[in-house]
Amino acid sequence: xxxxxxxxxxxxxxxxxxxxxxxxxxxxxxxxxxxxxxxxxxxxxxxxxxxxxxxxxxxxxxxxxxxxxxxxxxxxxxxxxxxxxxxxxxxxxxxxxxxxxxxxxxxxxxxxxxxxxxxxxxxxxxxxxxxxxxxxxxxxxxxxxxxxxxxxxxxxxxxxxxxxxxxxxxxxxxxxxxxxxxxxxxxxxxxxxxxxxxxxxxxxxxxxxxxxxxxxxxxxxxxxxxxxxxxxxxxxxxxxxxxxxxxxxxxxxxxxxxxxxxxxxxxxxxxxxxxxxxxxxxxxxxxxxxxxxxxxxxxxxxxxxxxxxxxxxxxxxxxxxxxxxxxxxxxxxxxxxxxxxxxxxxxxxxxxxxxxxxxxxxxxxxxxxxxxxxxxxxxxxxxxxxxxxxxxxxxxxxxxxxxxxxxxxxxxxxxxxxxxxxxxxxxxxxxxxxxx
Amino acid sequence: xxxxxxxxxxxxxxxxxxxxxxxxxxxxxxxxxxxxxxxxxxxxxxxxxxxxxxxxxxxxxxxxxxxxxxxxxxxxxxxxxxxxxxxxxxxxxxxxxxxxxxxxxxxxxxxxxxxxxxxxxxxxxxxxxxxxxxxxxxxxxxxxxxxxxxxxxxxxxxxxxxxxxxxxxxxxxxxxxxxxxxxxxxxxxxxxxxxxxxxxxxxxxxxxxxxxxxxxxxxxxxxxxxxxxxxxxxxxxxxxxxxxxxxxxxxxxxxxxxxxxxxxxxxxxxxxxxxxxxxxxxxxxxxxxxxxxxxxxxxxxxxxxxxxxxxxxxxxxxxxxxxxxxxxxxxxxxxxxxxxxxxxxxxxxxxxxxxxxxxxxxxxxxxxxxxxxxxxxxxxxxxxxxxxxxxxxxxxxxxxxxxxxxxxxxxxxxxxxxxxxxxxxxxxxxxxxxxx
Lengths: 436, 436
Prior knowledge:
The structure is a homodimer of 436-residue chains.
Chain A lengths: L2 H9 L6 H13 L4 H14 L3 H12 L15 E5 L7 H11 L4 E5 L9 H6 L10 H11 L1 E5 L6 H13 L5 H14 L4 E8 L8 H17 L3 E8 L7 E2 L1 H12 L5 H17 L7 H6 L2 H12 L18 E6 L4 E6 L1 H11 L15 E4 L6 E2 L4 E7 L2 H14 E4 L8 E6 L2 E4 L3
C-alpha cells in the first residue's frame, strides 16, 4: 500500500479500508508520509466525505497515535464534557464543579482554542496563580483526592490531530464533518472517559450555521463515540447570540462564579443544569437537585477547591475584584427603542477579539481582562439611549473602535421573542427535537 | 489574496480569476506557497475542474514562469509536434526529419518521459554519440543551418510545470484534463512555435482510455493553443495496441530508420504521413508528396544530417547493427491459430519496462537495447507455434520472465478486423471523426 493508492481511492469516492486509514494516520504522525500527500488526501476527504465506519476508524487511529489516558484508578464512571466552541461559552467552568459537587469525578483535559476568545485553559489562567500544566500523575491524583481537575492536554496526546489540524487550517479543509468529528472525538477517546456529553453549537457564532448541519455533526460525533464503546449524547444548542452575557476571559470567569452562586444569566444556568443532569444520568449517579447545589454554595466551594488545588487564588470566588479587570469600561448605547431581535454572536466575538481577547496563532498572547459584556439579549426590551453592552478595553481608543461594531451587532424590532437555547438531543437512538 | 482563499474558491467549485491563478503559479514557482497548499489546490482542481478560460490562464502563467524561446530568427512558420505518449510511439523520429526534408523548419524540444519506455531523448541517445544537450543558441543556429534540431528542454523553462508535475505524480492528481492540458501546452507555448500539431493517444496504452475522454482532452489542448494565438490541430489516434512493431529505445530507432527508408510498418507510416501533411499545411508550405521523400531517401538523409549535427554516428542509418542490441532474442509463440483480435499495449509496455526499457524516476538509468518486437498486429492471421513477438533481453532469464505476459497480451479469435488508427481530427472549429 502506498499513500498515492489511498489518495486515489478517496479521490474516486471509494470507502477506505481500516488498514488504509491506519496507514495514513501512522504515516502522518511519524512523518513518513509528507505534508503534500496528507493535504491532497484531506482535500479528497473534504470533497468526497467518509462513511461512519471510516470516520470511526480514523478517530480510533488518531486517538491511538499518542498517549491514551487510563482513568481506571479513579473510582466511578467518568463522564467528559465537550463543546464544539461558541461565543461566551464558559459552561465547562460551571458544569465541571457542579457535577463534581454532586459526587461524580471530573477529569477534564482541554486544549487552547484558536479564534475569537480563549479556550477553557485561558479562562482559568485569568485566575491569579492557576496552573493548568499538571503531569498525568498529578492530574489523576487530584481527581482521586478532590473529585475534579482541569488541565491542558499533554503534548504527547493525539499527535496525529496536531499534524492534521495544522494542515487543515492552511488548506481550507477545516469544515468537513468527518474531519471535525474525528478531531473532537480522538481527543475525547484518548482522554479516557467512560461516557461523553457534547454541546454542538449552531448559529452565527459557531462553525456550523444551520440546525441541519449541527445535527449532522452531532450524529457523526455520537456514532463515533457509540461505535468506540463510550456512551455519547450530544445537545445541539443555539449560538446565534452569545451564551450568557460575558465574552472575554476574566469576564467569563466572573460570570461563571456568579452562575455557580445561583446568580448567573438564565441561559447559561439552564444549559449548565441540563448538561449536568445528563452527566449525572450517564454516571449512574443518584438523582440530585443540581440547582440546589448552586444555591447552597456547594458548587462554588468545589470550584474554590479546584482553584486551590491547582495553585490559584481561591479567594476570587468571594472577591471578584481579584480577577484582572480592564481599565476602561465604555458603554454601547441603543439608538432606538423596542425589543432586541438579534445579537450577532460572530460580530460580538470579532469585536472582543479586536480588543485582544482572542488569538489567531497558538503561541500568540491574549489580554485576559478585555471583552464585551451584554446588557440586553434577544427578547429584552430596550429604550433608545439605554446601554446595550459595555466594552471592557485597555484604552478609550480601543473601546471607541469597536463601539459601532457592537451596536451594529444588535437588531432592535417592534417586538421579538427570546431565542430557544436547547434545540436537539442526539443519542445513538436518534435525534430528539427539544422544546426549550 | 492568500493561498487559502484560492484553495477554498476552487474547493467550492468557483471559477478562479486570472489574478488568483497567476498568484498560485508564481507562489508555486518561487516557493512562497508551500507544497502542502499546492497539493490541496491540485486535488480541488482535479475534483472540481476548470473552465476553458481558467485552463488558458493557468497555461500562459506556467509558460511565463521561466524562459520562453524566441524562434523569430528562424525564417518561416515554425510548427511543433507533440504526442501525449503511447507504447511504441516513435512517430516524432519519423515526422521531424520528414517535414524538415520538405523544407519546413523543425525546432523540437523534448522532455524525458517517465513510464513504460523512454521518451524521444532516450531513443535518440541510443544512437552512439548523439547529444541532446544543446544550448539555446546552438539549437536555433542548427535549425537555421540544416532545418532541424531535437534537444532537451533547458532546466530554466517552465519551472512551474516541474513543481506541479512532481506533486501531481505523488498525489494522484495526474489524470485531470486542465492539469494535463496546461502541462502539455505550457511547454509548447514556451518552446515558441507558431503552430502545433498534437497526437492525443487513446486506449489501453495511453493515459486516456476512451474516445470521449481523448476528444475532451484534445478539445482542451486545441482551445488553449487557439486562445493563445497559436494554430493548433489535434489528432486522436488509437493506442489499444502499440504503434508499429517495436517497443524499446534502440529497437524503436531502428524501426524509425526503416520507416524513413519507406519500409516501415504501415500504421507508423500512415500516422507520420498524416501528421507531416498537417504540419506542411500549417506551415503554409507548398504541397509535397511526402511518401516520395521516404522512397527517394531525402527523409533518411535529413535524419542522418540531424544525427551528424548533434555529434551522433550518422552511419547508423545505413548500418542498423551499429545500434545497441540485446544479447538475447527470445520468441513468444502463439498457442492457437486464428486472427489476432487484440494486443494489449499496456501489457506489452509493462513487459518491456520489466526488461529495463523504462523508468519510474527521472534519474533512473534505462537499458536502451532491450524491448519487445511484435510480429503480429490486430487483424493478422497467426498459426499455433508461430512467433507473435520477440523479447530482446539482457539474459535468458529476463526474457523467460516476460514470455507469458507478452503471450497473454495477445488475444486470438476466429476472425478479427484491423484496428482503425486515425480516429478524430480536432480543430478550433470542432471535432471531425475520421474513417481511416
